[in-house]
Amino acid sequence: MDFGQYRYETKRKASEVKAKSHVTETKSVQVKVITGEHDKQQKSRRAAEWLSEGHRVKVDLFLSGRYKYMEEAFLKERLERFLKIIPIEYKIADPIKKSPKGYTVTLEREGKAKFEKSKEVVEEKPVKKAAEDSDSSETKSKKKSLDELLEGGLI
């Protein structure tokens, strides 16, 4: 085997190893005390996607202003409530701890759990036309009251 062939094979093997390897990153999700329920669900789905891809997820409970001085137990409970929403199995790599901006916890995927996006089926309501919307009895009563006003000379 000549040197060119050797270099080609080593380069090919290195590229195969690189293609099969997966670099894990630490992704970050930031939640506040006043974050709405729907926003929490969206962020938890995003965290579940990252966990299923094999990344670590750092969840930050961001505290600003007067929220910094709330009870520690209340704030930890808020963070744990967010963790319960995550729809995939995970393990806690770093427990909940105080950080400069609030509280932080780091999550890792447990096993080979995969997250599948659920396609929510939204039921469509039949569209009613304006004529169908009002009952005929309502329109009759309105006409009667209008006629009474005309006869009474009020209009």
TrEMBL record:
Region annotation (Disordered) ranges: 115-155
One Pfam family cited in the UniProt record for this chain: IF3_C
Basic and acidic residues composition bias: residue spans: 115-147
InterPro entries per record: T_IF-3_C_sf, Translation_initiation_fac_3_C
Domain of life of the native organism: Bacteria
SUPFAM superfamilies: Translation initiation factor IF3, C-terminal domain (SSF55200)
Gene Ontology biological-process entries: translational initiation
Domain Translation initiation factor 3 C-terminal: 25-86
Protein name (record): Translation initiation factor 3 C-terminal domain-containing protein
Organism: Candidatus Kaiserbacteria bacterium RIFCSPHIGHO2_01_FULL_46_22
